[in-house]
Amino acid sequence: MTSMESKNEMLVMVLIDLAEICKKLADNSAVPDTLRAEARKFREEFDSLLPDRGKGTPAQHAQAETLVIRIARFLPKVVEGVQAAPRSHVA
User: For residue 55, what pLDDT band results from cuts at 50, 70 and 90?
Assistant: First the structure.
C-alpha cells in the first residue's frame, strides 16, 4: 500500500466515524435543533460521497478532506450548545 493509499484509508476511517457521530447527534433530542440540523447536513453530505467509496475522483477526495475538517470544527459547538441548554431536573 502506498503512502497516498494509506492516507486515503485513514481519511475514510475518520470520516466514517465522524459521520456516525453526526447521525447520532441529529437523532438526539437533547441536542439543540440548530445543531441537529447542521449535523444532519454533514451526514447527508457524507452519504452523497458514499456511493463512490474506493473510486472517488480527486474532487471527491478533496470534498471528503474538507468535510472532515468542517465536522471537526463543528463538534466543539455541540459541546457548548448542549452545556448552554437548560437542563430539566426530575424531582
Answer: confident
Grid cell digits, residue 83: 452545556
Amino acid at site 67: L
Under DSSP, is residue 20 helix (H, G, I), strand (E, B) or coil? helix
Distance of CA 58 to the CA centre of its chain: 20
> How does DSSP classify residue 31?
S
Residue showing cell 447520532: 24
How would you class 19 by CB atoms within 10 Å of its CB: exposed for 0-12, middle for 13-18, buried for 19 or more?
Answer: buried
Nearest alpha-carbon partner for 68 in 2, 7, 17, 31: 17
Rounded CA separation 82/80 (Å): 6
Q: Is 50 exceeded by the pLDDT of residue 58?
A: yes
Distance CA 24, CA 31 (A): 10
